[in-house]
Amino acid sequence: YTEAWDADKKSIHVMPDTPDILLAKANSANISKKLYVQAWEEAKKKGYDMRADAIPIKTAKASRDIASDYKYKETHEKEKGHYVGCPSAKEDPRLALAARAMALQSDRLYKKAYNDSKTQIHIPVDAMAVQAAKECQTLVSDIDYRQYLHQWTCLPDQNDVIHARQAYDLQSDNVYKSDLEWLRGIGWLTEGSVDVVKAKKAQELLNDRLYRTRPEQLKFTSITDSPDVVLAKTNAMQLSDV
To answer: Which Gene Ontology molecular function entries are recorded, alphabetically (predicted)?
Structure first.
């Protein structure tokens, strides 16, 4: 069956100028890393010539000088000790400005006037604010709000007292359960109770042995000349490799 195919495989020859071969070669050239960096490698072999007065070199030197800490502080170091025209530090405008800014930022000087004047306040005892505070304190005071009444004395045979006792007895848990005291100590068997019967019925429903019948317990004899058996035998013979 496969002899013709094996012989045909050996006689196949693809021409080198077919569209598929040309497309594969073009794709190989496009994704080739060697061809991709070939121009760069040839440019590196030629070397480079960068003069000292080139624009990129001058730009780099200028950026370095700007960023240099020494160049940044060079003017300040030269101006140290050359202040002229100020006989004292108080007359120097820069020092005076710095002292003024420090005084404005000082928290102690900012609160000095307040600390000096807060102990000199005198409030009269009959001021409106004081009277309003006293009235508010009286309203929220627990002592004035609660006024305990005197102890009442009730007779035991009054109708309201008898009614209250009956209501207490109805609400009492001991009185509510007093009719069950005679059940204490009496034995009881669970056989025949509702829960036991319900559990037995559930067990019968879930019993796999009663629910299913095993195949080996069924009496069955296959007929050898039935159409489906004959068809199965014929198909087995047709599909047999032997």
So the answer is: actin filament binding
Model confidence, pTM: 0.19
Instruction: At 225, list the tokens.
Output: 């000349």
pLDDT confidence of 84, banded at 50, 70, 90? low
Half-sphere exposure of 235 (CA within 13 A, CB side): 6
Alpha helices in 92-190 (DSSP H): 93-105, 107-110, 112-117, 128-140, 142-145, 159-171, 173-176
CA nearest neighbour of 63 among 51, 55, 52, 74? 55
Distance between CA 23 and CA 16 in Å, rounded? Answer: 11
Q: Which residues contact 15 (CB under 8 A, 6 or more apart)?
A: 21
Q: Residue holding tokens 């030269």?
A: 78
Please determine, for residue 144, whether its predicted confidence score (pLDDT) is greater than 70.
no
Domain ranges for the chain, please list them.
Answer: 13-46
Distance CA 40, CA 237 (A): 73
* 135/126 Cα distance (integer angstroms): 12
pLDDT tens for 12-50 read 777 778 888 899 988 998 899 888 899 888 888 887 777
Residue 114 has a pLDDT of: 83
